[in-house]
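so my prof wants the structure for this chain in the tokens format not the other one, which i didnt know existed until like an hour ago. anyway here's the sequence
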Amino acid sequence: MELKIEYTESAFGHSIAEADIRHAIVNRIRDKPMKKYINKYGLVGFDRSGNLLEIAD
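here's what i got, hopefully its the right format
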């Protein structure tokens, strides 16, 4: 099953490639609900070069 990911323009604000974001999501090491927000999650994963990315949903 293909993972459906929707990107906002701000996701690319630090010159991060779509493939690196997808890689970090698929290879996440931590994800959990964000405090003080309803239906928002944060995750940490590695991009294709091994750098950590923090991603908020």
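also thought this was worth mentioning. Residues 10 and 35 are 21 Å apart (CA to CA).
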